[in-house]
Amino acid sequence: MEKNKSWHYEIDFRCSFGIWPFKRTLEITPKGFYWCGELIPMKDITRIRWGVDLRRGGIFPKRVYVAVFGTSDKEYTIKTKQKDFYEHLTDKYWKAVGRRLFSEMMEGLAQGKKYPFGDIVVEDDGITVNTKSAFSAGKQDFYPWTDLQWGIVNGSLCFAKRDEPTKLLSGSSFLWVDNIHILNVAMGLLQNSDNRKKLSSLKV
After folding, report:
1. What residue numbers bound the domain in which 82 lies?
2. Last residue of a domain, one of 48, 66, 97
3. What secondary structure does DSSP assign to the chain, as a single string?
4. Which of 20, 78, 113, 167 is exposed most, by the fewest CB atoms within 10 A?
C-alpha cells in the first residue's frame, strides 16, 4: 500500500495550457491520463516521446518544447516555451508510463520480440539497421551490442560501429521517434553493465 501511495505522489500532475478557446487540460493519476476530461487508461498508453523543436527565423532560433503521449491509434501533444514546465512534465511521463514501458520491453526482448525505432530494429542481443538506397534494394545488417557504440548527437540517439566510430549507422530523433527515450535509458544502463550481450538483463 505504501509503495502505491508513493507512486501516486510521484506521478500526480495537473496543468492547463493554451489560451481560450483553445485551452487544454491534462491530469495524470494512477487510473491514467485525463486529457480535457477524457480518460486514457494507463494500460492503453503505449508510447511517449519528447524533445526540443528549434524553429529558425531571425537571428536566434526559437525553442518549442514538445511532449507527446499516445495509444496505438491516437496521440496527444503538448507544446510549451517554458523549459521548467517541460522538464517537470516529462519527468511525470517517465514515472507514470516510461518505467512500465521499459519493463515490458525487457520482458518482450527476453521472449524474442523485436522493437522498431526509426530505421533500426532492436533485439535482445543487438540491432538490425535498415539501409535504403535510391539505386538499389534496401538491405538489413545486424550488429551485436559488443560491436557497437552509441550516444546522443543533435537530439538523436545514434549508433556507430566500435571500430568505425566516425561512420554513423543510425540516428533516431527524440522529438519524432516514439519511445526512443526508453531505448536511451536501456543503452545508458548497458553502457555501465558488465554484461553487454543482452538488454533483457537490465533493470531500472
Report:
1. 2-97
2. 97
3. -HHHHHHHHHH-EEEEES-TTS-EEEEEETTEEEETTEEEEGGG--EEEEEEEEE--SSSPEEEEEEEEE-SS-EEEEEES-HHHHHHHHHHHIIIIIHHHHHHHHHHHHTT--EEETTEEEETTEEEEEEEETTEEEEEEEEEGGGEEEEEETTEEEEEETTEEEEEEEEEETTTSTTHHHHHHHHHHHHT-S--S-GGG---
4. 20
Which of 62-66, 88-92, 123-127 is predicted with the least confidence, judged by mean pLDDT? 62-66
User: 182 and 134: one domain?
Assistant: yes
Q: 133-168 pLDDT, tens per residue?
A: 656 566 889 999 999 999 999 999 999 999 998 889
Instruction: Tell me which of 50 and 54 has the higher pLDDT.
Output: 50
Is 36 in the same domain as 9? yes
